Structure formats: structure tokens, C-alpha cells
Amino acid sequence: MALMSGLQRLLRHTPLLHSHHASIRFASTLTSPKLFVSGLSRLTTDEKLKEAFTSFGQLVEAKVITDRASGRSKGFAFVTYTSIEEAEKAREGMNAKFLDGWVIFVDPAKPREPRPPQQSQSRPSESGFTVNKTVGWCG
What CATH number does residue 60 fall under? Predict the structure, then answer.
């Protein structure tokens, strides 16, 4: 713990290290006009998100991700622009800013990773019997 606070103090008071440390987050250039926005308030809607990001360029989509069951926000969203330059401006302009009272973070969106195929619900066990995992009560 003391080592970390000492390192932070060193970074704060060393201009060369501090400027390098501060630029690490923006060192990577965008390869796609799609941004990942995290730290959203549960009250942020698609419309509020669109309103906050529209001043940086032409939006293709601004979508708050919601839970299927409850319909409530999961606290993150994706914003897509027509060009990478507009997305970069939005990233620089909105990162670590307040939206609906919460500090949001804007990062490049990563491509969606393929999900592994689902296994069938009933499988024969080692003894050869089929296991039925039905939930409920019959009786």
C-alpha cells in the first residue's frame, strides 16, 4: 500500500512520467467508429445518450443496453458515428464527464466474441441414465 502511494506521488510530481501516464488511455487510435460507454446511470435512456453525444458528429446509433427480464439499464451503452474522426472527438470530449449525475467512461468498442455453442439440456450420465433438470413441482 505504501509502495503504491509513493509511486502515485512520484508520478504526480514528475512531469515527464505524469504526461506519459495521462496519455496511456488515449494512446490507441480508433479502428472503428463504434464506442463503448460505461458508468451510466440506471436512469440514462437512449434519447439522453443521443442528446449528449450528438454535438460531436452524426450519430448512426446510440443504444443503452438493458436487461431482458427487468428492462432496466445495465449501466453501459454503445454509440456509433459515421466516421472514426467523429468518434475520436466524442471519445476525447465525453470521457470522464458527467451524464445524469454519474461519471462516464468512453472507450473503443471491442468486436463481439463468438459464444461457445450451448450444450444440450439432458445428457446421459456415466451410468447411462438421462438427467432431467426440470425445475418445478409436479404432484
Answer: 3.30.70.330
Which of 81, 101, 98 lies closest to 89 in space, CA to CA?
81
Q: 81 lies in which domain range?
A: 34-108
pTM: 0.65
Residue 114 lies in a domain: no
Residue with cell 454519474: 102
**pLDDT, tens digit, 9 for 90 and up, residues 98-128:** 999 999 999 999 988 898 887 765 555 566 6
When divided into structural domains, the chain yields a total of 1
The predicted pLDDT at position 119 comes to 72
- Compute CA distances 104 → 36, 44, 48, 57, 133, whole Å: 10, 11, 13, 19, 41
pLDDT digits (tens, 9 = 90+) for 58-98: 999 999 999 999 999 999 999 999 999 999 999 999 999 99
CA 134 to CA 54: how far, in whole Å? 48
Alpha-carbon distance 107 to 100, whole Å? Answer: 19
Give all strands of the β-sheet with 73-81 in edge-to-edge order. Answer: 59-66, 73-81, 34-38, 102-108, 97-99
Q: Which residues pair with 61 in a beta bridge?
A: 80
Task: With respect to residue 4, please indicate whether it lies within any of the assigned structural domains.
Answer: no
